[in-house]
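sanity check this fold:
=====
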Amino acid sequence: MHLPLLSRARFLALLLAALVVAVPLAVAPPADAAVKKPLDIVKVYYDPPGRDYSKNSEYVKEYIQVKNTGKTTLTLTGYVIRDNGPQKYTFPKGFKIAPGKTVTIRSGTGKNTSTTLYWGKASFIWNNTGDTARLYSSKGTLLESCKFAGGVKKATKTTVRTDATTAYC
């Protein structure tokens, strides 16, 4: 059977349109696939062992870790970490993190290095009973939120997996 020239052109146009729609759908990841972010909260060490004494030597035992999961070095000038309360940490001007590297931000005071930064607070930041760590870009865009309930030992729909001292985000 031979199709008239006009019908053949319509058929080819419809086939091309169907392929334009179908091919991206076939290669797209499932909707529930994990999103790979270039900067990721990986851990909140919210309740170091021992009593919570009001001393810098105790505050610096508490920390949050952020990892560059991307393929390029990131400059974190102006990026912010917040808790559920009024606590706010702003990354120092010019701070960079290389691909695959992790930086630890400790709650107390100390000397910043390329792998460890200090919040500079004379207090603990993360609540032992649960809290939320939020990471913002320098433009104020929420990049990630890590909600934990102290000592839960498993994840729920609203919290990440924890043990007695640590949230794994």
User: Anything to note?
Assistant: The CA atoms of residues 15 and 165 lie 58 Å apart.
